[in-house]
Amino acid sequence: MSRTPFVAGNWKMHKTVAEAEEFITALLPLAGAVDDVQIGVCVPFTAIQAVVDSTRGSSIEVYAQNVHEAEKGAYTGEISLAMLDELEVHGVVVGHSERRQYFNETDAALRAKVPAILAAGLTPILCCGESDAQREGNETEAVLRTQVVEGLADVADEDLAKVTIAYEPIWAIGTGKVATPEQAQETCKYVRSLVAERSQEAAEAIRIQYGGSVKPGNAAELLSLPDVDGALVGGAALEADSFAGIIEGARA
Question: How does residue 111 score in pLDDT terms, banded at 50, 70 and 90?
């Protein structure tokens, strides 16, 4: 099955509204008309409306970096799916290792969030990944099994392929370390096998991104791997030229 590559840039806590608009203005001539790669930018809540407006009519999609699973309620500081849908976002990144590490996001919370995002008609990008110590301790598969199986537990089999999974080894995020092509392929193939335990059809269709120090110089090699269907990009997605270079690598 041919899977359309999906490259998403995660801005994290970067860019004011003005900086976000400047970035999009620079990116549009470089990638705004690309139709063979799905492109997303995951922006801070404060810049979502501006970026949605700036990308309107282009091929660039807008994603939020988190969401609460409840429809509404006494959850000070949280954002609901209805609020995001009103802004016309395309999807949400959930389970990023920084959310897990710094904000105590649990697999149980993600089990609720992923189907809620789907029910709202949006695309979830579910992140998973192991630490350096876990990889050294040969715990990678056990960690990923827990994160992926739990995160998808309440998603119906027929909806599994609507989820994008981002495999991000924590030891490669912002460190300059990159998984070797062999490591990236082996691990993304394992993630796909976890989906296949539920549905072989969904496993063949679902997109699995690699994330962790992806740059224009290594993108083409990583994104050409059989079980790598795109990238979730951090630092290299903060400059339009760099992000466009990674998108071009996905087209190679």
Answer: very high
Rg (Cα) of the chain, in Å, rounded?
Answer: 17
Q: Which residues are catalytic?
A: 96, 168
Domains, in order of start, for the chain: 6-251 (3.20.20.70)
Rounded Cα gap, residues 84 and 132, in angstroms = 34
* Cβ(100)–Cβ(63) below 8 Å: no
- 42, amino acid identity: C
pLDDT in tens, 30-83: 999 999 999 999 999 999 999 999 999 999 999 999 999 999 999 999 999 999
The pLDDT of residue 1 is 57
Task: For residues 167 and 232, give the distance between their C-alpha atoms in angstroms, rounded to a whole number.
Answer: 8
Going by C-beta distance under 8 Å and a sequence separation of 6 or more, which residues neighbour residue 251? 5, 34, 36, 37
